[in-house]
Amino acid sequence: QVQLVESGGGLVQAGESLRVSCAASGSIVSINGMGWYRQATGKQRELVAVSRRGGFTNYADSVKGRFTISRDNVKNMVYLQMNSLKPEDTAVYYCYADVRISAWNLKSYEYWGQGTQVTVSS
Fold this sequence. Notes:
With 122 residues, the chain is mainly beta. It is 0% helix and 59% strand.
C-alpha cells in the first residue's frame, strides 16, 4: 500500500508564509498526480493545487499568485509554499496522490494523507 504523511502546518499571522510538505512511501511504481486539498470547518473539501505529470499545475482561483506547488519526483514528495496567507486560508490541508502500484498494468489509485492544520490569525 501507499502512505502519505504531511508536515509543516501550524499557526501564523495574516500576511506570513508557511510551507507544507508531503512524503509518499510504499508500493509506488509511479505517481501521476500529486497535490493538496483543504477543508475548512463546516465546508466541503476543495482543491488547492495539483501537479500532474509533465509539469502541468492547477490552482484554485483563491490561491493563484500566492501559493506555489512543487514536486520532488525522486523523493516522491510534494510541497506547497503558501505566501501572503489570509484568515480564509485556515483549514486542514490534505495531501493527495494518484499512484500506480503495479508494473503489470497502468491502473492508478487515489491516496490521501491524514491532514495538517493550517491556522491563519488576523
